[in-house]
Amino acid sequence: MSKRITVSLPDDVAEHLETVGERQVSRYVAEAVRAAARRERALAALEEIYVRVGRPSAEELARADEAADEALRFKQRRLGGAA
């Protein structure tokens, strides 16, 4: 099911949409809005966690960054350099 709406966009955004092709604009915008909604839900869930257990310290964030970097390096080694 679809609903037709009209929006006003800044010139630069409208110009970018013109590059995706007239028949693809609705799909492109729908995917962008869905991605934004997923980010908003994830941030809200993270805020709920922070309320319960507090925000991570700078040291904890640094350890998490290092663990993520190591996981990426491991993945790249396993895939022969492709990420």
Largest sheet: none
Total DSSP helices: 3
User: What fraction of residues sit in β-strands?
Assistant: under 5%
Rough outline = extended
Structure description:
The chain has 83 residues and is mainly α. The protein has one domain. It contains three helices and no strands. The model has no long low-confidence stretch (mean pLDDT 94).
SSE inventory with pairings:
Layout: H1 11-19, H2 25-53, H3 58-78
Give a short synopsis of this structure.
With 83 residues, the protein is mainly alpha-helical.
Give keywords.
single chain, 83 residues, mainly alpha, 3 helices, 71% helix
